[in-house]
Amino acid sequence: MACDWLLIDGSSLIFRAFHGIPRTVRSPDGHPVNAVRGFMDALARLVSTRQPRHLAVAGDADWRPAWRVELIPGYKAHRTAEPVPPELAPQMPLIDEVLAAVGIDSVGVPDYEAEDVIATWTARAAGTVEIASGDRDLFALIEDPRVSILYPEKAGLTVVTEAEVTRRYGVPGRSYADFAMLRGDPSDGLPGLKGVGAVAAADLVRRHGGVAGVLADARLTDSQREYLAAALQVVPPVPDLPIELPPGRRDAYPVDGERLTALTERLGLGSATERLLAALAALARQPSAD
Question: 153 in helix, strand or coil?
Fold first, then answer.
């Protein structure tokens, strides 16, 4: 069934494309374009299989916002220890150029991450929303039956609903963020509460309703209380950035054929461009949710 909005975590998709496509894929002049081609093909597959009425891509304008790091110094510290690979960095602005020429809305907000852009769009979008991302922080946005996550796994994309969150983590649907704050999450640099593993974290969520309830009712040390208060500000995606919901669709694609043709020839994207435009032609024929 077609969804009203397909929201793409651009950075998540780009990194998966970069690591999933051989780095021997290069432009006619010898520069790596594996992430560009992989991103375009992944986007085409998503549009073809999910059949959205609207589509938008969110970007990480800030990989590690200072305001989050100030509250939790270890927040996503791996992004400093493991920077963007040298062969990927020059491809990222090329992807932005392709999206602009095709006519796909792509937005990043200074001092915020893609998850915050997606949370804001989700709060403002009418109808059903599917979010394509490998970032589990976005599980906090799941809202049956309106919002689900398309989460990449070895077998392909898994549609994560509230029931699936409960099956995996033993917590009520949208409580994954509270669970992660209590248990800890090394990928996000969240230390969690000492001695609290997955089972204990799930039990605390069920008994207290979440971190706010734990702060109000549970016996905590001063350091635990300080950490959880900070985590409540850091972890949940921000749902009210000062941005508008983009149009999410065009009457026809591409919007700048001359520019797209030049990019396709310069980067050797021929078949990838054709596949993406074919998928978007079907999107343009979908009735709008507006």
Answer: strand
* Angstrom distance (rounded) from CA 201 to CA 170: 9
Q: H/E element holding 49?
A: helix 34-50
Cut 0.85: pTM above it: yes
Q: What share of the chain is helix, strand, coil (3-state, %, to 5)?
A: 50, 10, 40
Residues sharing a CB contact under 8 Å with residue 238, sequence separation 6 or more, in sequence order: 112, 116, 119, 120
Domains plus CATH for the chain? 5-165+238-285 (3.40.50.1010), 167-234 (1.10.150.20)
Tokens matching residue 191:
């230390």
Distance from C-alpha of 143 to C-alpha of 5, rounded to nearest angstrom: 14
| pLDDT of 167 strictly over 90 | yes
Token pair, residue 134, equals 């490998």
Q: What tens digit of pLDDT does each residue of 198-236 get? A: 999 999 999 999 999 999 999 999 999 999 999 999 999
The tens digit of pLDDT for each residue in 99-137 reads 999 999 999 999 999 999 999 999 999 999 999 999 999
- Token look-up 């009457």 returns 251
